[in-house]
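[recover] target loaded
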């Protein structure tokens, strides 16, 4: 009997967002397997034109986290004191990825196909729809990264909070400004003492 559904359900049932990692490196083979799984994701228009950056260098991870921290402080300047304090406490959770063995960053080029087809006259609603298609498609890629990591007994977490530092992240990662980052997904060996 084919038990693929039961295997999938087991992965889905045991998966949790992992926010603490052991520090042990993720093997090249596991990274390749995760990328191979993510490469099978559906994508709007069927073009599958996304890319996935994989960051393992600790200095680069810290620099990316610093971008997020700096943007959190910048945003908090527009808030009253109590709200700023609350926001800064909340946004401090946006940088734990710097302790992961690997950071997967799915991204793709922002398209303006509809605006082009409409002779530059696309409405805000149409432009938002096209942008949403991209980000939703990148979410499919991200989910396959997370499930592939879990199938390899690795921990992962889907993070969109850091995307508030969008332009800074693009610059820090060397991604052109006209590309959209879908999420940051830290991956690593789970810290046994920790359960979400």
């Amino acid at each position: 009997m084919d038990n693929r559904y039961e295997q999938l359900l087991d992965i889905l049932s045991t998966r949790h967002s992992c926010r603490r990692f052991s520090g042990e490196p993720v093997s090249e083979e596991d990274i390749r397997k995760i990328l191979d799984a993510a490469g099978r994701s559906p994508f709007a228009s069927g073009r599958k034109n996304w890319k996935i950056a994989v960051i393992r260098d600790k200095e680069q991870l810290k620099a990316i986290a610093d971008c997020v921290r700096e943007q959190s402080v910048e945003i908090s300047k527009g808030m009253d004191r109590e709200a700023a304090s609350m926001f800064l406490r909340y946004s401090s959770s946006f940088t734990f990825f710097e302790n992961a063995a690997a950071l997967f960053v799915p991204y793709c080029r922002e398209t303006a196909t509809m605006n082009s087809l409409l002779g530059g006259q696309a409405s805000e609603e149409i432009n938002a729809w096209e942008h949403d298609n991209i980000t939703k498609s990148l979410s499919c890629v991200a989910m396959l990264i997370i499930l592939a990591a879990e199938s390899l007994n690795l921990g992962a977490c889907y993070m969109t909070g850091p995307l508030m530092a969008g332009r800074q992240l693009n610059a820090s990662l060397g991604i052109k400004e006209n590309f959209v980052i879908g999420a940051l997904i830290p991956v690593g060996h789970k810290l046994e003492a920790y359960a979400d």
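[recover] notes: Helices lie at 4-14, 28-38, 58-76, 81-91, 113-117, 124-151, 166-173.
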